[in-house]
Automatic annotation (TrEMBL):
<feature type="transmembrane region" description="Helical">
    <location>
        <begin position="149"/>
        <end position="169"/>
    </location>
</feature>
<feature type="transmembrane region" description="Helical">
    <location>
        <begin position="6"/>
        <end position="28"/>
    </location>
</feature>
<keyword id="KW-1003">Cell membrane</keyword>
<keyword id="KW-0812">Transmembrane</keyword>
<feature type="transmembrane region" description="Helical">
    <location>
        <begin position="189"/>
        <end position="210"/>
    </location>
</feature>
<dbReference type="GO" id="GO:0005886">
    <property type="term" value="C:plasma membrane"/>
</dbReference>
<dbReference type="GO" id="GO:0006865">
    <property type="term" value="P:amino acid transport"/>
</dbReference>
<keyword id="KW-1133">Transmembrane helix</keyword>
<protein>
    <submittedName>
        <fullName>Lysine transporter LysE</fullName>
    </submittedName>
</protein>
<feature type="transmembrane region" description="Helical">
    <location>
        <begin position="113"/>
        <end position="143"/>
    </location>
</feature>
<dbReference type="Pfam" id="PF01810">
    <property type="entry name" value="LysE"/>
</dbReference>
<dbReference type="InterPro" id="IPR001123">
    <property type="entry name" value="LeuE-type"/>
</dbReference>
<keyword id="KW-0472">Membrane</keyword>
<feature type="transmembrane region" description="Helical">
    <location>
        <begin position="40"/>
        <end position="65"/>
    </location>
</feature>
<feature type="transmembrane region" description="Helical">
    <location>
        <begin position="71"/>
        <end position="92"/>
    </location>
</feature>
Length: 211
């Protein structure tokens, strides 16, 4: 396996994971509009640095899980329950997210780099996300848990994260109407994704027990 594949997969998964509107990328866009693109890029660099650390932690934890197959089965079963509950919640019970909350307009005089690090560190989702992604990729032989490939995957995820932030910084004005649509329908989008994951997980669990 060459290094280009884990680099590309890291880039692709990070870009996909960060593209939906959230506090960090929306804040990057706000900083760009209010204080200029350079300060927004500094903010994005701080956030990306934390994403690199979170990705590495997630992949290392995934390597431990991959070496213990019984843990993978337990996590699949637990994940099936969790994702099913999340799907039901987002489709039927979750409230629609509010657009452009005032809290995202941060006026801290501290370095935007450390502000980006802080907001990114408060988001714990990337760690379980990369555990799931790397275990799944490894199960299909697209990824191996060896340090050179892990480092390459982490670098790719950092590049993908920064690219996603940059798109918000550079093109937010053009994407604003689409962003509003996504925010308005975010619950259904997330519910669809978790529903799809639930179906895939259910199939994997059934195949394991049938074999």
């Amino acid at each position: 396996m060459g290094y280009s594949l884990p680099l590309f997969l890291g880039f692709l998964t990070a870009s996909f994971g960060i593209t939906p509107p959230g506090l960090i990328n929306m804040t990057a866009a706000k900083v760009s509009l209010n204080e200029g693109r350079n300060r927004a890029l500094i903010f994005a660099l701080g956030a990306t640095l934390v994403v690199l650390v979170q990705t590495f932690i997630g992949v290392i934890f995934a390597r431990f899980i991959d070496e213990n197959p019984y843990i993978v089965i337990m996590l699949r079963e637990a994940g099936l329950i969790v994702f099913t509950i999340l799907t039901i919640y987002f489709f039927f019970f979750a409230k629609k997210p509010k657009e452009a909350q005032e809290e995202s307009k941060l006026h801290s005089k501290k370095s935007r780099f450390f502000l980006g690090m802080l907001l990114s560190a408060l988001n714990f989702f990337p760690i379980p996300f990369y555990v799931f992604i790397s275990v799944t990729l490894a199960s299909y032989h697209y990824f191996v848990f060896e340090l050179p490939f892990i480092y390459t995957f982490v670098v790719g995820s950092g590049l993908g994260a920064f690219f996603a932030f940059y798109c918000y910084i550079a093109f937010f004005k053009k994407m604003e109407s689409r962003t509003a649509f996504i925010l308005h329908n975010m619950n259904y989008i997330i519910g669809s994704v978790t529903g799809l994951i639930s179906i895939i997980t259910l199939v994997n669990v059934l195949l394991y027990y049938l074999n």
